[in-house]
């Protein structure tokens, strides 16, 4: 099983586990079947994790179907909030161990990993408070001697499928509102980063989440995980990942009319107008382009800079990029970690080669560094990008900053919107009129103005067009896990 020596000694060794959680039991796969989890910084096997089967998904779903009644009506909203607050506290108490696990299996720097664990905890804290705010309504009836009111009830069993790029935060952003609403969850963690999900589930059980209400089913068997989309006992599926997989899961979910939340691909524009504060714009670009080595769904994929300031902006950005230090995430001084696997490196290589072939100018980076064993690629800046390049239409998901010149507001808005995606968009301007106008015209679900950091537990997260449906986090996130029931009472005075 996971007998490989873990590189870091954890304060709470019990958080590291190779087994799945099914029907209240920590379970190994039949025949002790496992799959390897690789450390991106070295390319070596970090741990071996149980490779569970379709039967395990079915057992988890069956248990969750009966078990969610322990949360609703078994617990009041206040009691569910208390459990979530305890889970939040346990996450923060174990933040160093969770950070080390996350950094090693994902590759991101220690500082970024620690920030993500805190971000993950914030969703648990937020929905601990939202649990008691599932308000219904009184509706005046058109009929005499009658009244109408609504109540909000949990949808039931929720299938949760999460990505590798935020292995802690994407778990809590989905599970915390589900538990707050009174739902049970069956989680299929990413095979690249299952260890964070397992550790968080252990803390959830310790906090008091009923064992039948949380299940973790690690697997490399894609067909087995489709049980979450087809099993009629699953009433909702929440997925974060590629648009292609999201469409496929949505079609399968339609067979039993499941509720769906889909947070899918992005191709975020990042616009620097001629009146922008360039230092602020560079800071924003560094945050939203190179965070997690460019492997976030909301990172800037296309950087548009007005011709009048493009050279100055590029020079400032390049100076900062050249100062970045590549290395193993847990090593002191590392500011840029590896990509998740070799395929990710190859994709960045292909985008760079395509851009240079079509007239782009390489300013810095552009290759895999020498002397580093893992899946690394140098932070790269290319100027003179055009709409004909792959980077204009395809999400790079890596540390490539391609800068496109523009001359007018109308031109850049048209280029920014010329994509089937609409998750996030960013722009920098000191003109309040332009701020309001451009924010209204960008076809995205989230806009960052004079900032590259838009994700927070209180902010609704989600996109438009082919970037998905539904919103996570915020005051709207709880509703994704609830049904509205209308109650009409007649003949009250007869």
TrEMBL record:
Query: What species does this protein belong to?
Result: Helicocarpus griseus UAMH5409
| Active site as annotated | 263
One example of the protein's molecular function in GO is:
succinate-semialdehyde dehydrogenase (NAD+) activity
Its BP terms in the Gene Ontology are:
gamma-aminobutyric acid catabolic process
- Keyword Phosphoprotein listed: no
| Protein name, as recorded | Succinate-semialdehyde dehydrogenase, mitochondrial
> Domain of life here?
Eukaryota
Which family does the UniProt entry place this protein in? Belongs to the aldehyde dehydrogenase family.
**Top class in the EC scheme:** oxidoreductase
């Amino acid at each position: 099983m996971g007998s490989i020596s873990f590189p870091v000694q954890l304060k709470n060794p019990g958080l590291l586990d190779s087994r799945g959680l099914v029907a209240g039991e920590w379970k190994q796969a039949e025949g002790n079947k496992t799959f390897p989890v690789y450390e991106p910084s070295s390319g070596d096997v970090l741990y071996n994790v149980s490779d569970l089967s379709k039967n395990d998904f079915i057992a988890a779903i069956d248990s969750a179907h009966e078990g969610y009644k322990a949360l609703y009506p078994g617990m009041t909203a206040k009691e569910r909030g208390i459990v979530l607050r305890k889970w939040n506290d346990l996450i923060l108490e174990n933040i160093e161990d969770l950070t080390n696990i996350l950094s090693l299996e994902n590759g991101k720097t220690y500082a970024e990993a620690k920030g993500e664990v805190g971000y993950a905890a914030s969703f648990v804290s937020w929905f601990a408070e939202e649990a008691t705010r599932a308000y219904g309504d009184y509706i005046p009836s058109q009929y005499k001697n009658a009244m109408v009111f609504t109540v909000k009830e949990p949808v039931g069993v929720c299938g949760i499928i999460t990505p590798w790029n935020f292995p802690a935060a994407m778990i809590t952003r989905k599970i915390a509102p589900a538990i707050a609403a009174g739902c049970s969850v069956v989680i299929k963690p990413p095979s690249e980063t299952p260890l964070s999900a397992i550790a968080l589930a252990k803390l959830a059980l310790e906090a008091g989440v009923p064992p039948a209400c949380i299940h973790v089913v690690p697997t490399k068997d894609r067909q087995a995980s489709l049980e979450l989309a087809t099993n009629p006992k699953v009433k909702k599926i929440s997925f974060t990942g590629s648009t292609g997989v999201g469409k496929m899961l949505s079609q399968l979910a339609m067979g039993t009319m499941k509720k769906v939340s889909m947070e899918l691909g992005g191709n975020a524009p990042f616009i620097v107008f001629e009146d922008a504060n360039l230092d602020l714009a560079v800071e924003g670009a560094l945050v939203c382009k190179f965070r997690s080595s460019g492997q976030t769904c909301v990172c800037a994929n296309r950087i548009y800079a007005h011709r009048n300031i493009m050279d100055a902006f590029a020079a400032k950005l390049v100076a900062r990029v050249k100062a970045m230090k590549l290395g193993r995430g847990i090593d002191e001084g590392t500011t840029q970690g590896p990509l998740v696997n070799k395929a990710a490196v190859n994709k960045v290589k292909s985008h760079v080669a395509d851009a240079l072939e079509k007239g782009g100018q390489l300013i810095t980076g552009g290759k895999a560094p020498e002397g580093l064993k893992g899946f690394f690629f140098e932070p790269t800046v290319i100027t003179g990008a055009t709409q004909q390049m792959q980077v204009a239409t395809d999400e790079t998901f890596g540390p490539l900053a391609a800068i496109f010149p523009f001359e007018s507001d109308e031109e850049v808005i048209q280029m920014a919107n010329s994509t089937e995606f609409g998750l996030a968009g960013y722009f920098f301007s000191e003109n309040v009129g332009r701020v309001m106008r451009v924010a209204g015209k960008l076809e995205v679900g989230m806009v960052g103005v004079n900032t590259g950091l838009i994700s927070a537990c209180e902010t609704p997260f989600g996109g438009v067009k082919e970037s998905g449906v539904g919103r996570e986090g915020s005051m709207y996130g709880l509703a994704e896990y609830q049904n509205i029931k209308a109650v009409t009472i007649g003949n009250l005075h007869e």
